[in-house]
Amino acid sequence: MDADDGARRRELLAGPAGQLYAEAVAAGGLRADDPRLGGSHDDREAVEAVATLRELGLLRQDGDGVWRAADPALVQSSLVTPLSREAAHLLDESAAWAETLGELAHAWRRAGESGEGLTQLRGIDTVNGFLETAVEDARSEIVTAHPAGPRRASVQAAARSRDARALERGVRIRTLYQHTARHSRSMRTYVDTMRELGAEIRTLDEFFNRLIIIDRRLALIPGDVAESAVLIHDKRVVAYLVDIFERSWERGRAYDHETRTAKGQIAEEVRQLTVRMLGEGHSDSASAKRVGVSTRTYASYVAALKEEYGVDTRFQLGLAMGRQQDRALVADDDTP
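Now predict its structure.
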């Protein structure tokens, strides 16, 4: 009995065949002249139900020609046991395939000197699948940078489970977020959990690209299209990316329960970044991305700056900020 056939029989037992079985139990059986026992009956579903009960041994004809209901326990072992045995075999086979392919994938990931040192990963499932196995292979260190504020709850949950296993193996994990990630309650809860497990987390005001480096031997950066990534296993490029991360890490602020002074310093750093985005003339969407907030939140930052400088328009704001910068430069020149 294949899977489709088994599913159809189960469906019949949950419906017309089950009703017919209950009728046979209540009536003490079905007489041999019951029209449903004949293959020519008009109700094809009833005929199929009878055939199913007969084939499964749930209707059996006695010496008087009456078809009587049989105890389901008598046929269960003949039906369920083979299925259980087949399921166990499939699970064993699945595990064997996973182990074999895992060994091949491990060899592929370790081949750092092959080809051009770059591999394109396309499709979110492909990227996540590779990341899952790469993190499982990590032995000493994982460093990551995640810009643009807090991540989705589903992404956080997957990362928490994956990274927790790595931390339990003694892998050091360091992660950089932007300052604006501190505004999310779910993010604070996530960070507190990861810090308790041993992860080190800091935040930075500046924009940076997403980056994952594992054991200083391979790195993952965003691809040129959505839901893609570039795997880098050229040692020189990976070393360069490690150096960039370390410089950013040194400038970052530890993500803990800050003092009022630290909160003020972080707010000022975000303000200065907003001022810089305005001065450089970026669009609101581009500036919001670099600050790590939504376009609406970025607009509120700009509105706060207008209020601070006592102006009504962005043009006036630009002039006011320019005059302030000029005065600062003059003051520097006059310093003995």
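Strands lie at 59-61, 67-69, 118-122, 141-146, 172-178, 200-204, 211-214, 218-222, 228-232, 253-254.
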